[in-house]
Design a protein that fits this description.
With 169 residues, the chain is mainly α. It is built from 7 helices and 2 strands; from the N terminus they run ββααααααα. α2 runs antiparallel to α3, α3 packs across α4 and α3 runs parallel beside α7. The longest helix has 26 residues. The N and C termini lie far apart (40 Å). It comes from Paenibacillus vortex V453.
Length: 169
């Protein structure tokens, strides 16, 4: 893991330096730069119907992903931040549809139950229920017994953004 110093602060993380991208014009492999990471997330967005407070949680996930070029662990933090936005979106929509996020005993309704409730109310398509449940990888990230590093997979961010957009379509 990169140890930040004044000399390497703006340098690519050692791990990102291993990756290459094929230049289709020259047929040669070139180093992946910060430009590649930024361009790879330009098409990931939340639609205009998503509440600003959810967008404000998701936007840092994209920034952290881009900064993963400099510090590899930021890719993991990007995914964790996107998951927080996803959970907040589920809770927001659940409260909007059901009227509350607490059960009859006054305890917070769990994420799994919120998803199931939204499926019952047809906010989430029944065929997509399993998909929404697979996005609930929170426990591994938020209750770790060691450092988990997910790496530079922008598809995870894209999938979470698409799920949030579906909730507010």
């Amino acid at each position: 893991m990169k140890k930040i110093t004044l000399e390497n602060y703006y340098s690519a993380d050692e791990t990102t330096q291993f990756f290459r991208k094929l230049d289709t014009v020259t047929g040669k492999f070139e180093p992946i730069t910060e430009k590649h990471y930024i361009e790879s997330i330009q098409d990931i967005y939340l639609n205009e119907k998503v509440p600003e407070r959810i967008k404000s949680l998701f936007e840092p996930a994209l920034a952290l992903y881009a900064y993963g070029y400099l510090y590899w662990a930021f890719f993991t933090l990007a995914n964790e931040q996107a998951i927080k936005a996803f959970e907040a979106a589920i809770s927001y929509k659940h409260e909007e549809v059901i009227g509350t996020n607490v059960d009859s005993s006054g305890r917070d309704v769990g994420l799994s139950k919120k998803i199931n409730n939204l499926v019952k109310r047809r906010v989430i398509d029944r065929n997509r229920k399993d998909y929404y449940h697979t996005l609930r990888i929170r426990n591994m990230s938020f209750h770790p017994n060691e450092q988990y590093i997910f790496g530079h997979n922008n598809e995870a961010l894209r999938n979470i953004a698409n799920a949030i957009n579906e909730l507010f379509a």
